[in-house]
Structure formats: structure tokens, C-alpha cells
From TrEMBL:
<dbReference type="Pfam" id="PF01206">
    <property type="entry name" value="TusA"/>
</dbReference>
<dbReference type="InterPro" id="IPR001455">
    <property type="entry name" value="TusA-like"/>
</dbReference>
<feature type="domain" description="UPF0033">
    <location>
        <begin position="14"/>
        <end position="38"/>
    </location>
</feature>
<comment type="similarity">
    <text>Belongs to the sulfur carrier protein TusA family.</text>
</comment>
<protein>
    <submittedName>
        <fullName>Sulfurtransferase TusA family protein</fullName>
    </submittedName>
</protein>
<dbReference type="InterPro" id="IPR036868">
    <property type="entry name" value="TusA-like_sf"/>
</dbReference>
Amino acid sequence: MARIGCWSLPAEIIDARGLKCPLPVLKMEKRLEAMASGATLNVLATDPMAKIDIPLFCRQNGHQCSLVTQDDAINFSIIKG
């Protein structure tokens, strides 16, 4: 959860399962633009290229990114820098 002051906000979620890159990255980029620094975005993806593209985008743009593989999907947890 993102913390703003003493309040916690639930993470926003993008369900990009079934989409091929670069669509998951483009959807993530657009959503991150509208979010405050420190906010958390979860992205669900199934395209194996997302394991490379999403962390690379995050490193290049100052965001923290971690991932967990769950069943057939990859769950990326991104904290906006």
C-alpha cells in the first residue's frame, strides 16, 4: 500500500494478462504518469517479454520494481519514483 501522510492507499492494478509487449508497458507508463510519487501500481502480465521490459522501464525512469510469478501470470509491484 502506498502511504500518503498517515493514510495508506490501496495499490492500483493493471490487468495486462493476454496482452503482448509493448502493450503492458504502455498501459503501465500511462497509469504511472497520473499517480503520485510513492504510490504503488501492480501489473499482471503473461507475456514473457514483460519480465525484461517492465523492470527495464522502471530502472530507466526511477521506479522500484519487484516481481513474483503466480501460476501463469507475472505480478509486478511498482513504486513510483
